[in-house]
Design goal:
Blueprint lengths: L13 H24 L2 H7 L2 H10 L5 H14 L20
Length: about 100
């Protein structure tokens, strides 16, 4: 007597396969929309308010000539006093006492 054992055929779960294809399709559509169609959306999400302030400050062009002129006027008004340094030690340290 011969016993034949056959494996049961596994049915294909079409709902899982369709769900994976829909997920991949939505992933590609979303990445296209974010990275190629409107990339400024990512920039708005990532940048903080502090970074936006830094960007606006970096675009300010100072007037260097006016700043230097103001510094020169300030330092010219200050009185210059000469510091008298006391003479320490002997002029020739190798000379005998």
């Amino acid at each position: 007597m011969a016993i034949l054992i056959e494996q049961q055929k596994k049915s294909i779960n079409w709902s899982v396969i369709i769900g994976v294809f829909v997920f991949v399709f939505l992933l590609f559509i979303g990445s296209y929309y974010l990275f190629f169609k409107q990339p400024q959306v990512i920039e708005e999400l990532i940048t903080s308010s502090g970074q936006k302030e830094i960007e606006s400050l970096s675009q300010v062009k100072p007037e260097y000539i006016a700043i230097v002129d103001q510094l020169n006027k300030f330092y010219k008004k200050a009185e210059v006093t000469q510091i008298i340094q006391p003479q320490l030690g002997r002029q020739n340290p190798f000379q005998q006492f």
